[in-house]
Amino acid sequence: MLGWISHVPNRLTRAAYKQVAYGADYRVCFSWIHLLDRAHLRNSGLGFHLVKGYSAASGSFNLQSKRFLSVEDKNDREYINARCTTISPPNQIGQSGANNGTFIRSLFSNLLIETTHKVSKVHLCHENGIQPRDLRSLDTDMHDLPASILVRSQSILFCTPNIRAIIKADKLVVLESSETDSEFGTDSETSTTVQNVVSDIQNFGSRAHASQVNDSAAPFEFIVLESLLSQEINHLSQTSSELTNRVNTLLSSMSSQDVISTAHMQEMIEVKDANEIFLRAATSVKDAISEVLSEPDDMRRMYLTGISAGRLREYGDDDEVELLLETYLKYSTSLTLTASRNIQRLNSASQHLTLLLSSTRNRLLHLEIRLEIAMLAMSAGALPAAIFGMNLTNHLEEHPWAFWAAAVGIGMIAFVATQIGRYGLRKARRVKMEQAGLLAGSKHRISNLPHHP
């Protein structure tokens, strides 16, 4: 923009961009350039001046910021920040005779486990036939992602609150947070999750081989899928049992005490929050399984072994995977019902506690009102006493019954004031109850109005 010539002051400052070879530690700063002898500005572009260790002189300022792109940022962009464990059988499942009995026996007795701490994202996508956007569901650093079971052309993406994995026809890739490395002694050790998954694969595979004939043995991907679902459901079941025990202990402790302490209230809030978090996790797993069951195309494409051999199932020919998913859908539904029941029990206890506090507050208010009525009666009785207490001549002090008459009169005045206060209290309570009854009756009448189309 060249129209700024007449609007630029003599001491205008601008930032100029200049790339200086100061190594990797480039920092951004803006420097004032005093244009004492320049009368106009040919280019209004604002750039950056890269310096290292620049100290501001008079008439200049230095604003440092972060590096443009550090080595760690590049690694995060090119490599996945997770510990990848590959579990595969000794033979490749896509070869001929993959489902015979000899393969099954060798498969579940000699699983190969390989752990990698640095995997390229591009290599992971190309090797497993997934898109880069699918890596978001496999990100182990994001713990609040909803559960999902995504079916791709060559793999199945398994994402739950506790397990992130890629299922293929010939292997399983388990992704774990890199923080798990610090929980174990050496990098060669496998995590507890991987050990449990391997154990389940061996158990489920042996059971499938024993219960089915060789020609209809369960494919490797379904055995792995069942192992992952079993691990997730087991983890959720343990969490559900712990939360249920906490709820039972808390409610029994509250019911056995006459006074509810602040610690009990704080514990109730914490337990309720934990149950709500667990309910979201269990509901997420249930919804992920339900979503796959509602897509027949996804279920028939989950037969990765058949697809690798060039055999795609027909619509409706997916009873095996449907029965598998229905089983764990039942378990996840049971967990969500348990969490909902615990939350309902806590809500009922909270409402009961609220009613108790309201009743106690009402009793205190009633006592305060009674004390106010008593003070009103005493004040009404003190008024005649104050009148007689004035040193004025009234000739009543000479009467033999004057004292008793004054005492009885003061008592009657106090009694009348008390009755007036009690009558006002009863009338106010009656009006409040009538208002509540009218409000409830109006709601009932509105709800019973006929609806005309």
UniProtKB/TrEMBL annotation:
Transmembrane segments: 371-389, 401-425
Gene Ontology BP term (one): mitochondrial magnesium ion transmembrane transport
Cell compartments where the protein resides: Membrane; Mitochondrion inner membrane
Organism domain of life: Eukaryota
InterPro entries: MRS2-like
Coiled coil location: none
Membrane-topology annotation of the record: Multi-pass membrane protein
GO MF entry, a single one: magnesium ion transmembrane transporter activity
GO cellular component terms given for this protein: mitochondrial inner membrane
Pfam families: MRS2-like (PF22099)
Keywords: Ion transport, Magnesium, Membrane, Mitochondrion, Mitochondrion inner membrane, Transit peptide, Transmembrane, Transmembrane helix, Transport
Family: Belongs to the CorA metal ion transporter (MIT) (TC 1.A.35) family.
Name listed for the protein in its UniProt record: Magnesium transporter
Record organism: Rhizoctonia solani
Lineage: Eukaryota, Fungi, Dikarya, Basidiomycota, Agaricomycotina
